[in-house]
Amino acid sequence: MDQIEHKHLHINGLKLHVAEVGTGPIVVVFLHGFPEIWYSWRHQMIAVAKAEYRAIAPDWRGYGLSEQPPQIENASYLDLVDDLLAILDSLAIPKAFLVSKDFGVLPANLFTVLHPERVSGLITMGIPLFPPVPSAIRFDLLPKGFYVIRWQEPGRAEADFGRFDTKTVVRNIYILFCRSELQVAGDDQEIMDLVDPANPLPSWFTEEDLDAYSALYHNSGFSYPLQMPYRSWMREAIVKDAKIEVPAMLIMGEKDYALKFPGFEDSIRSGKVKEYAPDLEVVLMPEGIHFVQEQLPDEINQLLLNFVAKHI
């Protein structure tokens, strides 16, 4: 971890944090989801650098060590696309492999559609690729107590989280998202109430890891992370008749709760996902959960490096 360097870039009026390690013309950019941060790619970054490639992992605006944007209620996925383009330009990177996870898949997907000449290949984890239109995920078919629905309500998650310190909030979300069932609260519950304080963290997620995440979220708070992605779902990010034209790989854990989103598992297993991304390789990991890159780093690293080597 000590070899990972940190810098801030002036991007679209904000100071955005970027973690970087390795050198060379082949660049892999890692794009985090929630409750993740640049740190969630620590295992992959080191593996990429050892393979003599360059690894870059930004904190999205409003996350971790990056600056908070003004007027967060206007947050759009296009902001993240513009930030990613400006980061590549600032670092003089003409083209890169994109590796994305959770909601980070959405701006990576949109970036690849809008700027295919800047993308060597696209890897997604935790969410399959789908056209960038608001109807791609049928939230109306999910239970009303599901965490995504609850967190879309302004102020509700803030009040729920506010009962605990940052470390407890991160810990609870990690435990919840490690489950293979959907996280649904009853009418008399909030999402944080679904976690028994006696439940342990997974064995692959150490107290040191929790401390690192907690420090980063203590710095940024949760205001922007709740707005983006939950309250900015695909705002303005609509591209009709889009397709992913670059080589792509989808990595999903078969115990990932996200497979229970309406249509996700059927789209993957039926091959329908390849209608949108024709050059797509699908890898299903039998024991994998939502945080597959942290849970099974050696396997993910090998898949990642094989993909990059194949498409250089």
TrEMBL record:
- Molecular function via GO: hydrolase activity
Question: Which ranges carry the AB hydrolase-1 domain?
Answer: 27-134
Record key words, sorted: Hydrolase
Pfam short name (any one): Abhydrolase_1
| Coiled-coil segments on the chain, per record | none
Per its UniProt entry, which superkingdom is the organism in? Eukaryota
The family annotation for this protein states: Belongs to the AB hydrolase superfamily. Epoxide hydrolase family.
Protein name per the record: AB hydrolase-1 domain-containing protein
Organism from which the protein derives: Aristolochia fimbriata
